[in-house]
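User: Sequence in, structure out. Go.
Assistant: Echoing your sequence, followed by the structure tokens.
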Amino acid sequence: MTDSQDNTRSDALAWVAGSDAPEKPVVNLGFMALTDAASVIVAATQDFARPYGLTLNLQRQSSWSGLRDKLVDGQLDAAHALYGLIYATHLGIGGRAPTDMAVLMGLAQNGQSLNLSTELRRSGVVDAATLRARVANGEPLTLAQTFPTGTHALWLYYWLAAHGIHPLQDVRTVVVPPAQMVDHLRAGRIDGFCAGEPWGAQAIAEGTGFTLATTQSIWPDHPEKVLGCTRAFVEQYPNAARALVMAILEASRFIAASEENRRSTAQLISGHDYVGAPLAAVEARFLGNYEDGLGNAWRDPHALRFFADGQVNMPYHSDGLWFMTQFRRWGLLRDDPDYLAVASRIQQSALYREAATVLGIEVPASVMRRSTLMDGSVWDGSAPGAYARSFALHALTDPTPTPAL
């Protein structure tokens, strides 16, 4: 890879011995075998952390539930994590007692996909209409996602519901670790899956599946993975937390700086110790070049991205709020939480601002952002309770329909 030291601050070594020196110089950093772990992998392996007095002990995990448990139990200090995993853990959803959690920064936007089996394609299911017709005929379908409160579950639910398919009633959903999705599809244990790359691309390469939809078609530039940790880690080691954000911000900026950097990053992360997938499966969608297995190819304007001048990395409060609205929509929360209070506690926007400012990275003026999703609903972080109730398909126990926002 290109020498990472060309991209670090010339005075960065001041962080090693000064008053801002990390209280914990070795950070155990978890990740899953996914393309969107790239900035974490690059930061740990290409010396982006050393100038800030950190050593990153990179540890690949085999499941999101295992990663969560190690974060909560202190075996991992921080991790490449699902947005919804951090929020669910904080709220006590999913079988563990509530634990105060923190989102230090965003790691990635876009870049996930909903994929179906080649067998379904052969039977005539090639788009939303034919899938809906198949479901309406009462033929059982099993679709996999990676974690019950994770982004992939919520993208899958949102896409199905937008096309008139109730995700909790009309299909069966199961949890499968991302790296096992293609194996399960090949074996016929599932009919499709929603997961991060490179597993959608790999299913096409093997001839076992095709891509029905990308998640960026659901929400262009949607929030995806985050750098997550417990709030206790931030409170006990604030300098280490800030230095960690700075190192990964530097790595994110490096990846985005040129196509050459993106290609070298794809080659690095495809290795056995990281994603462990063929370079061809990793690189194309990493660069934004898509094929769907149905004969269509395109350059995606909202492909996986890691930096975008810092727009990816800001821990927007509105992003965290959105995940809570979907927890509420699908019955994972029986009552409305104090949405704003929860997001304000989890999202470490002040710490992020400090780190980004030192690196000369522009910080958005607001912790809220506005987006329009595939069904025309507008999300800007306002009225989260009403937004959760605005959908025709839901699993609310106390539905009070309101006009779509």
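User: And one key feature?
Assistant: Confidence is low (pLDDT under 50) at residues 4-10.
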